[in-house]
Amino acid sequence: MTAGDPAADLVDAGLLVPTGLPGVYGRSAAFDDVRRAVGALVGDAARAEHAEAMHFPPLVPRRQLEQLGYVRSFPHLLGTVFAFEGGERDAVRQAETAERHEDWSEFQRMTDLVLAPAACYPVYPAVAARGPLPEGGALVDTGDAYAFRREPSEEPTRLQMFHQRELVRLGEPEAVADWRDAWRGRALELLRDLGLDPRAEAASDPFFGRSGRLLGGSQLEQGLKLELVVDIPGSGPTAVASLNHHLDHFASVFGLRTSAGRATHTSCLAFGEERIAVALFRTHGLDAGGWPDAVRAALDPLQG
Amino acid sequence: MTAGDPAADLVDAGLLVPTGLPGVYGRSAAFDDVRRAVGALVGDAARAEHAEAMHFPPLVPRRQLEQLGYVRSFPHLLGTVFAFEGGERDAVRQAETAERHEDWSEFQRMTDLVLAPAACYPVYPAVAARGPLPEGGALVDTGDAYAFRREPSEEPTRLQMFHQRELVRLGEPEAVADWRDAWRGRALELLRDLGLDPRAEAASDPFFGRSGRLLGGSQLEQGLKLELVVDIPGSGPTAVASLNHHLDHFASVFGLRTSAGRATHTSCLAFGEERIAVALFRTHGLDAGGWPDAVRAALDPLQG
């Protein structure tokens, strides 16, 4: 790895393809085979729990993030989608400005879309729209879904757009708490089966600004967020998965009710697919063909 | 299907999950198994031609689309990414405005990112960055990649974000023209193997405005765009794939040269995965389990 570019080893090995934008790479077949095999492991576990698959594109209604307070808590991470709504005259002025590489933002209008900051956001309103939860609550598998965070960085473990595979549990408070406790161990085990050495750490979200520090402190105090951290060679300690307990944050905004009409809690478990893939390549070697048999066996599709 | 919602049959069958946004749906496992099987078919054909996989997230440098004239040709389709760059005081004002559901666009700044309007856009600069093409040129498989078009519509075949699987051919003009001619028939055959009845039609891109109509006319006249059109029950004639010959449009902007230093042409073949999946469900039935054996056999992963 050169000192200048923390992704140089992965780029030189042909695993990542630079785009000229920080935190935006193309991925080779070798990289994505591993990434998807990791996602499939999570998917297998989800199927064993009869999770329902809901695969959303990384767009959510702007109004929902306004309602959820996301704009207040994470203004620095959010990407909003703008578009042109003008007529022919404005289109020409916009094009001329753009082709001179000058500022053409005045011609762009905010749309009703924002980029999904996490794979689970579209799940809560979709489940709520069905009415009360079935008995026992619900479990949703988001599949390998893109999320966007506006954090330009040269670090290959901090991408602006990346895949999360999330399991989302919705139900009675005790059932959700039990699910979360059970998955704490199962998620650690899943990562250990891949030859990684994860540890669970209490964590907080990167809330914005001074008041955000208070929110983060309260989140820590209540034990609402747990990160599974792996020491990635070249990148240091990195959260590759997180277990997040939302209490009734999503449920109250979207009117989620249990079958008995009781208040609902939600919790999610998010695996960062690209981060886990980078951890695997840097831990076991840049050629997946040479990885330990046990790791290749755990990543089933790599066997074929 | 109700008259009101042209996606009602797919939603009622649980294949698509509404989000409240036109042209933005969640997809069930049953829908996505079919969509991905279609992508895998294209991927198999690409592998047989020794295509290189390059899987990009749906973000491209804004500057590149400015250079390519995309802002002039398709201002109505482009989505640009904006984000917040201010300090604590602006963050509070932005949040308060957002939580009142009023216009907070003044706090958002244009970033260096736009949403990819097609899967192939990141491929050209990535290949150009390597220097002259290898002898024989190059062939790239984009994988199942998202593309964004700002065309809000209730029609389930016109999504704002959808998967394209694209094959991109770069090389000497004759080689690229030959590839395109060969794939015209192969792509038709691939769709016929799925029990669809496609036809190839000369087409033009939906250029913006009056001057756009001239561009479209010239594109038609030169025979640069071919669409594979299928009559989708409930949606009518729909382009489910397109073969696009760019001559030296991308090559000249990104400085693509052949191994002999000659001018380079590029051509791409794009399959619209969600459109083909909708065509299959509406042609063969909303339960893929009951599809003709030959169709299920062609979609190999559905067999298992």
Task: Walk me through this protein's architecture.
Chain A has helices at 8-12, 29-48, 62-68, 70-73, 88-99, 123-128, 173-193, 209-221, 249-254, 273-284, 293-298, 300-303; strands spanning 16-18, 25-27, 52-53, 59-61, 79-84, 108-115, 138-148, 161-171, 199-202, 225-232, 236-247, 265-272. The first copy, chain A, is α+β, with helices and mostly antiparallel strands. Chain A folds into 2 domains: 6-79 and 117-302, BirA Bifunctional Protein, domain 2, CATH 3.30.930; 82-114, no CATH class. Chain A has a 7-stranded mixed β-sheet with strand order 3-7-8-12-11-10-9. In chain A, strands 4-6-5 form a 3-stranded antiparallel β-sheet. A two-stranded antiparallel sheet of chain A has the order 1-2. In chain A, strand 1 and strand 2 (25-27) form a beta hairpin. The radius of gyration of chain A is 21 Å and the shape is globular. At the A-B interface, strand 2, strand 3, strand 4, helix 3 and strand 5 of A face strand 2, strand 3, strand 4, helix 3 and strand 5 of B.
